[in-house]
Amino acid sequence: MDKIMKVQKWPISSRIFHWVSAVLLLVTWLLMVLYQNTDQSLYINLHKAFGLSVLCWMLARVFNRLLTKAPAAVVMPDWQKKISKLNHFVLYVLLIAMPIAGLLMTVYGGRPVDVFGLFQIPVFVDPDRSAARFYNNIHTNIIWPMIIAFTSLHIGAALYHQFILKDQLINRMK
Questions:
Q1: Which residues have CB under 8 Å from 28's CB, separation 6+?
Q2: Whole-angstrom Cα distance, residue 150 to residue 153?
Q3: Distance CA 169, CA 7 (A)
Q4: Cα angle 62, 56, 143; round to 5
Q5: Contact partners, residue 4, CB within 8 Å, separation at least 6
Q6: How far apart are CA 14 and CA 65, in angstroms?
Q7: E-assigned strands of the chain?
Q8: Entry pTM
Q9: Which tens digit of pLDDT belongs to each residue from 38-50?
Q10: Cβ neighbours of 129 (radius 10 Å)
């Protein structure tokens, strides 16, 4: 039985939002790795600027998702559809929550956030070291591992569909 089926693609705007989100997340993570291995403030400042870019991009992505029509559903068991919808929802929430937690960690730490040298987000709260530590813990110890887990599930499912089921599901985002 031939499992290859013709799938409808997501609208071009959704595909652009998807792939740019992935690139922004990867760049933001790489900048943190560079900072941790060199301790140069350039990398942490760029990490914060890209993190805020992720936030803005994800908010625009939510609006795009609300305004665009999804392609026809792919045939798969109901449990897979439910897990897929839940995974996507959680990824959206995490990719919005992560930069918010990072911003709050920074401003509660008494530091403004420079956004690519274009402008700064000033410290808009009274500095509070315990609040800064709280948001740091959320940012690094809770949300980041969850992003890794849910992104891994997302990529794993895409690879399962592509190489095991060979149903061309991944073509919807190409």
A1: 47, 50, 51, 53, 54
A2: 5
A3: 7
A4: 80
A5: 166, 167, 168
A6: 7
A7: 113-115, 119-121
A8: 0.93
A9: 989 999 999 999 9
A10: 10
**Rounded Cα gap, residues 88 and 73, in angstroms:** 15
The pLDDT tens digits of the residues spanning 61-105 come to: 999 999 999 998 888 999 999 999 999 999 999 999 999 999 999
Phi, psi of 113, rounded to the nearest 5 degrees: -115, 120
Joined together, the tokens standing for residue 104 give 């709050």
Phi-psi domain of 131 (left: phi exceeds 0; alpha: psi -120 through 50; beta: other) = alpha
The angle, 0 to 180 degrees and rounded to 10, between the axes of the packed helices 78-108 and 129-137 is 160
Calculated CA dihedral for residues 78, 5, 8, 27, nearest 10 degrees: 80
Biggest CA pair distance of the chain: 65
The amino acid at 44: I
Tell me which residue of 46, 43, 49, 59 sits closest to 97, measured CA to CA. 59
